[in-house]
UniProtKB/TrEMBL annotation:
Gene Ontology CC, one term: plasma membrane
Protein name: ABC transporter permease
Membrane disposition: Multi-pass membrane protein
Keyword Lipid metabolism attributed: no
Main location: membrane
Length: 310
């Protein structure tokens, strides 16, 4: 099934894989922001996850250990951010930007020895005869386990935030840290946990880039994916299922521009490369404006430092 030389089934299948790094990072950032912390260091955590995951996978021969290492690297970066902003009360915006610059620089240094190296392959899940179903099989049953885990994580985050006590506490801390503290909740501990989860998801997304999406190590390979994840969280109004839709839209446009290049369309490569970012932001802004009356406001304490004595 093709339109204008573009295979629609292949495009849809590529969409899911292309969306996964951004979806993981955006899901993690949503949890962090729900706790009232704005971490602009998503790009830095992703790139550190990419290089750490790649290095671990090459050293051990296990892509699973590579994903674990990527998540740990992202979580360590987030913990550094948490110490600076929650213990030393540094400015969240400036610290997040510094974290991104630090991650980009350190990853470039670590990754020098891994350029041109191929990581061990990540196997796709075997769904047996389901993968052979026309159209549906290639789209839904031809991916690796991380793709399915990313969608499952969105469902888990939605459920936890909406139906569990832990989610209620997290949202309470994000809406009013002073009120949450007065009720006896440990605001700093909750934010550390939320930031750690967000960092782990960003690192996992970065590891997916270097181990599956590309798969190789290239300096600066995240190419702004962390910033897209941040934008998706905001324009999705901090709602998990809207984050899923936003990430899949970005992945779809990314897959489409690759298909257009492969089909030989006479469109400058620079325009095709920037299209996913520009179109994603424009569409998210339009959707936000159209649904303004029903948009969920940002957590009231987002970006504000908590003083235990307050």
């Amino acid at each position: 099934m093709s339109i204008g030389g573009i295979d629609i089934v292949t495009l849809a299948a590529m969409l899911m894989a292309a969306s996964t790094p951004v979806l993981l990072a955006a899901t993690g950032e949503l949890v962090a922001e729900k706790s009232g912390v704005l971490n602009l260091g998503v790009e830095g955590m992703m790139i550190m996850g990419a290089v750490a995951g790649f290095a671990a996978a090459v050293a051990t021969g296990s892509p699973v250990l590579g994903f674990v290492a990527g998540a740990l690297a992202g979580a360590l970066m987030a913990t550094l951010f948490a110490f600076l902003t929650q213990i030393f009360l540094s400015n969240q915006v400036a610290t997040g930007l510094a974290l991104t610059l630090f991650g980009l620089g350190l990853s470039a240094l670590i990754g020098k020895g891994y350029e041109g190296v191929r990581p061990p392959p990540t196997a796709k899940l075997d769904f047996g005869p389901l993968a052979d179903i026309p159209v549906i099989g290639p789209i839904f049953f031809s991916h690796d386990w991380i793709v399915y885990a990313s969608v499952l994580l969105v469902a888990v985050v939605w459920f936890v935030l909406r139906y569990t006590r832990a989610g209620l506490i997290l949202r309470a801390v994000g809406e009013s840290h002073d009120a949450a503290h007065a009720l006896g909740y440990r605001v700093v501990a909750v934010r550390f946990a939320a930031l750690g989860f967000g960092g782990a998801m960003a690192g996992l997304g970065g590891a997916y880039l270097s181990l599956v999406r590309v798969p190789q190590w290239t300096e600066g390979m995240t190419a702004g994916a962390g910033w897209i994840a941040l934008a998706i969280v905001v324009f999705a109004s901090w709602r998990p299922w809207r984050v899923l839709l936003g990430a899949y839209m970005f992945g779809g446009i990314t897959a489409l521009q690759l298909q257009l290049q492969a089909a030989g369309y006479a469109i400058p490569v620079h325009i095709l490369s920037m299209a996913p970012y520009v179109i994603t932001i424009v569409v998210l802004v339009i959707l936000s404006a159209l649904h303004r009356h029903g948009v969920q406001a940002a957590p009231a304490s987002l970006g504000k430092s908590f003083h235990a004595s307050s």
